[in-house]
């Protein structure tokens, strides 16, 4: 039986992303994915060896999307404004696509950094921070900003701010971080 010509890694990822967005990683299984594509589940394994491989590919797609959003938001701006715009775009993307964002937080064992969409996402944040601080490869401040953004996004996503919301906490925290970076 020939493989359907419409079945490509990209078409599988697009359908998987639709399922992911609708119900999160728990709703993403090979049978429902195959049904959404109109193929047998076994035909998916030609492109993705298992569910974990598919989830890692979706994580790469999510990291690439975040990278593009941050680059677009910060393009052509002065360092402080670029970093502020990137931070806001990051949170907006996390709110709009919470399950894609969740994939970026998937646990994994520590490993040497390899070229990847996740590494590219890190690099744009590192570049923006270094441009503001004036310190080349300013990993320390990038980690601080990254932790702040992730923490804020997770708290926002979980509803822990409650009905009163964050009451300007994002602006206060980001201002403090950016002020420190400018003083570096």
The overall pLDDT, averaged over residues, is 92
Oligomeric grouping of the chains: single chain
How is the biggest beta sheet arranged? none
What is the CA-CA span between the terminal residues? 64 Å
Strand content: under 5%
CATH architecture of the largest domain: Orthogonal Bundle
Helix content: 55-70%
User: How many DSSP E strands?
Assistant: 0
Number of separate domains: 2
The CATH topology of the largest domain corresponds to Tetracycline Repressor, domain 2
Output the radius of gyration: 19 Å
Helices and strands, in order, run as HHHHHHHH
| Tally of alpha and pi helices | 8
Q: What is the 3D form?
A: elongated
Structural class, please? mainly alpha
Q: Give the CATH H-level superfamily of the largest domain.
A: Tetracycline Repressor, domain 2
CATH class of the largest domain: Mainly Alpha
Low-confidence stretches: none
Describe this structure in words.
With 184 residues, this protein is an all-alpha fold. The chain has two domains: 1-49, Homeodomain-like (Arc Repressor Mutant, subunit A, Orthogonal Bundle), CATH 1.10.10; 59-183, Tetracycline Repressor, domain 2 (Orthogonal Bundle). The chain is 67% helix and 0% strand. The protein is built from eight helices and no strands. The longest helix has 24 residues, at 51-74. It is elongated and about 60 Å long. The protein starts with 8 loop residues before the first helix and ends with a helix.
């Amino acid at each position: 039986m020939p493989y359907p010509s419409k079945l490509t890694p990209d078409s599988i990822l697009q359908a998987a992303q639709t399922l992911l967005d609708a119900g999160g990683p728990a709703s993403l299984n090979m049978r429902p994915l195959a049904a959404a594509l109109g193929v047998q589940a076994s035909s998916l394994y030609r492109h993705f060896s298992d569910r974990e491989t598919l989830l890692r590919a979706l994580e790469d797609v999510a990291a690439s999307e975040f990278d593009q959003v941050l680059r677009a938001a910060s393009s052509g701006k002065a360092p402080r404004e670029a970093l502020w715009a990137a931070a806001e775009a990051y949170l907006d993307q996390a709110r709009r696509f919470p399950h894609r964002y969740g994939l970026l937080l998937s646990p994994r064992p520590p490993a040497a950094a390899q070229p990847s969409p996740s590494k590219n996402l890190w690099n744009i944040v590192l570049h923006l921070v270094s441009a503001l601080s004036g310190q080349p490869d300013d990993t320390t401040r990038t980690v601080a900003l990254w932790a702040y953004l992730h923490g804020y996004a997770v708290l926002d996503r979980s509803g822990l701010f409650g009905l009163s919301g964050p009451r300007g906490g994002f602006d206060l925290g980001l201002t403090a971080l950016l002020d420190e970076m400018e003083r570096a």
